[in-house]
Amino acid sequence: MAGDCRLVVRIDSEKCQGHARCHALAPELFELDQLGNARIRGSGLVPLEHQDKVWVAHANCPEQAIVIDVGAQRAGRISPA
Ligand code: SF4
User: Fold this and answer.
1) For a pocket test of ligand 1, which of 11, 13, 67 has the largest count of ligand atoms closer than 8 A to its C-beta?
2) pTM of the prediction?
């Protein structure tokens, strides 16, 4: 059932090249370190109201460095929000 699905996002730091597109598109989810590389704000659990933004950021990352775990809650990798 889609209603119990929560997204978890992380950055693959080996791929991130600091374009900052993610931060520009979804500042609620991504911040930048001193070198301009992306970091996740908070735990990585994407609030429901920002789920569209995380997919937009994912689609616009030229390095494919944004990794979204779609089934984290159902698979027991995170606790229910
Ligand atoms: S857009 Fe992609 S490569 Fe650029 S800072 Fe964000 S995660 Fe890193």
Assistant:
1) 11
2) 0.84
pLDDT in tens, 26-76: 999 999 999 999 999 999 999 999 999 999 999 999 999 999 999 765 566
**Rounded CA gap, 1 and 12, in Å?**
28
In this prediction, residue 72 carries a pLDDT of: 66
| C-beta separation of 42 from 54 below 8 A | no
Fold of 2-69: Alpha-Beta Plaits (3.30.70)
Query: Pocket around ligand 1: residues whose beta carbon is below 6 Å from it?
Result: 11, 16-22, 37-38, 61, 63, 65-66
8 C-alpha to ligand 1 centroid (Å): 16
Q: Where are the domains of the chain?
A: 2-69
φ, ψ of residue 77 to 5 degrees: the values are -85, -15
